[in-house]
Amino acid sequence: MDELTYRLEVGSGTVERALETEWLLPDELGGFAMGTALGVPTRRYHGLLVAAVHPPVERVAVLTQIVERLVLEGGGLPGAQTDRAPSEHWLTPLRFESGPRPTDAGLLTGFEKGPSWVRWVFSLPDGGTMEKRLDLARRRNAARVRYRVEGATRGGRLELRPLLALRDFHALLRRDMHEYSVRTRGEALIVAARQAGVLIEHEGLTFDDQREQWRHLYYEWESRRGLDCAEDLFMPRRYLLKIEAGRDCVCELRFSAEAESGVGGAAFQPAPVPGLEYAVSRVPKKDDEARRAVARLAEAASTFVVGRKAGLDGRGGVTVIAGYPWFSDWGRDTMIALPGLLLETGRFGEALTTLELFGRHVRRGLVPNRFDDYTGGAHYNTVDASLWFLHAATEYRLRTGDEVGFARLIDPCLKIVEAYRCGTDYEIHLDADGLIASGSAHTQLTWMDAQRDGVTFTPRFGKCVEINALWHHGLRRLAEALREHLPYRVGEMSEMAERCAASFAWFVCPEGGLYDRLQPSATRWMPVSEARPNQIFAASLSHGPLDDAHRADVVRTVRKSLLTPFGLRTLAPGSPGYRGRFEGNLFERDAAYHNGTVWPWLMGPYVEAALRVDDSDKSHAELRSLLRPLTARMEVHCLGQVSEVCGGDEPHTPDGCPAQAWSVGELLRAWMLVSGANTRTRTGGEKPVTG
Fold first, then answer.
1. pTM for this structure?
2. According to the model, what pLDDT value does residue 618 have?
3. 413: part of which helix (H) or strand (E)?
4. Which of 394, 427, 460 delimits the end of a domain?
5. Distance (Å, rounded) from C-alpha 669 to C-alpha 244?
6. Do residues 515 and 538 make contact, with C-beta atoms less than 8 angstroms apart?
7. What are the Cα distances from residue 282, in Å, to 252, 279, 290, 468, 581?
């Protein structure tokens, strides 16, 4: 589909945009390739091959870039009017620690990104073009870079210098050439360092075995974040393509992080985007705008769904990368993103497999917050991931009607409910009033979890509004589901839900909306009246604990103080502690993370809540208009993706992870809702009265 190709013309007036525009290609293992349209790596994570050694973790930066030098001879084609002087052109504008920011695109004239490839186009002096194309292998730790020269009017050569890092993808290294081992296998080359190795194969090229150290390569984004921002790279061999005037020339380099095995061309064949056809088919055929948005979002959704190799339990499965380039698979993010990424796209088998994987790792009622980047072991420090698991599991049942599959999820669901009822880690427990309490001033158990250098920036402990909305919703959903499987447990679930709904009145704020949380004092639970977006879930969930009037009041309150064209602010402007700019070093960014910063993923629950209040054609049109700016950014910053966060103040600059799973999943779900492809808001669940 042509709408899945993103194009950028590059010239003297677009260098800045090309330098700031990023692209991302996944390999379905957790590895990826990523960079800028200009070709300059600006992050430590940028590279033409970042491999997941133990999918989807243990990621290694293998190949950072290939430096291209074009050398053209003098003269020209027979019969040419004039002879040209010899010339040389460096096609890759790398930046070094002491060098200036690139201001010239050189011979680069265009950049394109498709679902599984990226392509740069260069115009040669005096006529002709050169194309550089990168493809990632599917479910292999391998990349192919192809060059094609057409219509050259002068002979010469193209010199290719691959720059290798072979390091942990989070780290930057300063090291010497002798720390790399180099050996040959026929004409192929195997280069290894402590962290990893790579096999380099070539076609259509000659080579010489000169080796070089490229020192102090500079990454601008790391400097912006107050981190180490330069490293040394190793060039193990120079490859040469002979260019003949008037003849087309083609060559390729292949890189495999599975260093003992090569990879053939078949591994790079493009494949249909999983779930794309299903998602688009559900949108009305006359709704071209929604079909285009859904197509792009379904393609983006496929980026995050990856395989997980067998872990400590000896079993693997399917999981969701929370965000590229630096996150692995997180429980909370996976459960929130799953309905959009997998259910809206009809990938039901993978949805069930993902739920089963996390269900196997439930411990003392807790779903893992994340899996370790190195050991693959589970980390448990969240109160809401388990409740989002209840939502995702029951949503799977409702969307598929698969009672047999859902039966395999009942055990972890009941373990969660029992653990929360009786009490579990981090002081998570069901209080006498029917509400869930958790944590302390030093924990960060909800999604607003920023903590650094001993500082908890958003200490949300006690009884949080969204935790109890999710608890009520999960109990109601389970009561419905268990009528089919364990009818004797239905009354227990319903009774706990009723107690929660009755006590939820404590969250109602007389000035409008809901209190963010109830915190313990010496004698009672004190409401905290910060204007935060967590209240939106009490209005968006199908079994939210609000009546129609209070649901509408929440939507009004959020719209007035938190809504932006790119998501919801995490704190209303003018509030104590509000930070409208997401910038500076990591400490400053974490301080702003949930104190004003906009999160695009919250657009999903906002749209759902708004439609539960008003499902008219006018409301659909207004919400569709609201989604356009955020969707349009998929063509500007990280092509085809939606960022993790944006600044709280205008212009709401995108930041954080350039590609975030729940941002994509919830925006896709929102488009399904406003286009009428998903009509769940019209059949919402029970609406208990709160007052």
1. 0.95
2. 96
3. helix 410-422
4. 427
5. 53
6. no
7. 41, 6, 10, 33, 38
- Is 244 inside any structural domain? yes
Rounded to whole angstroms, what are the CA distances from 413 to 356, 358, 380, 398, 580?
A: 11, 11, 16, 15, 39
CB atoms within 10 A of CB 103: 10
- Residues 247, 197, single domain; the answer is yes
Distance CA 92, CA 163 (A): 12
Domain that holds residue 482: 431-529
Tokens of 609: 């809540």
Backbone angles phi, psi at 652, to 5 degrees: 55, 55
In this structure, the answer to whether residues 421 and 449 fall within a common structural domain is no
Residue 298 · residue 639 · CB < 8 Å: no
Q: For residue 98, what are the CA distances in angstroms to 38, 47, 177?
A: 19, 21, 21
Instruction: State pLDDT tens for residues 86-124.
Output: 889 999 889 998 888 888 889 999 999 999 999 999 999
Which amino acid is located at 429 in the chain?
H
The first and second tokens of residue 296, run together, are 């792009």
Smallest CA-to-CA distance from 656 within 668, 665, 643 is with 643
**Rounded-to-integer distance, Cα 359 and Cα 386, Å:** 9
CATH of the domain at 48: 2.70.98
For residue 119, count other CB atoms closer than 10 A to its CB.
Answer: 18
In a domain, 110, yes or no: yes
Q: What integer pLDDT is reported at residue 392 of this predicted model?
A: 98
Are residues 231 and 323 located together in one domain of the fold?
Answer: no
Q: Is the pLDDT of residue 596 over 90?
A: yes
The H-or-E segment that residue 302 falls in is helix 288-302
590: helix, strand or coil: helix
Q: What is the pLDDT of residues 639-677, one digit of tens each?
A: 999 999 999 999 999 999 999 999 999 999 999 999 987
Does 464 map to a domain? yes
- Residue 684's pLDDT is 43
73, 155 Cβ separation under 8 angstroms: yes
Please give the average per-residue pLDDT across 74-96, as a whole number.
75
- Round to whole Å and give the CA distance between 528 and 585: 29
**Strand-strand pairing, 181-185 and 188-192:** antiparallel
pLDDT per residue over 413-443, tens digit each? Answer: 999 999 999 999 999 999 999 999 999 988 9
> pLDDT-derived band of residue 149, with 50, 70 and 90 as boundaries?
very high
Whether residue 90 sits in one domain with residue 12: yes
Q: 322 in a domain, yes or no?
A: yes
How many domains is the chain partitioned into structurally? Answer: 4
Tally Cβ neighbours within 10 Å of residue 61: 29
3-state secondary structure of 315: coil
Q: Are 121 and 129 in contact (CB under 8 A)?
A: yes
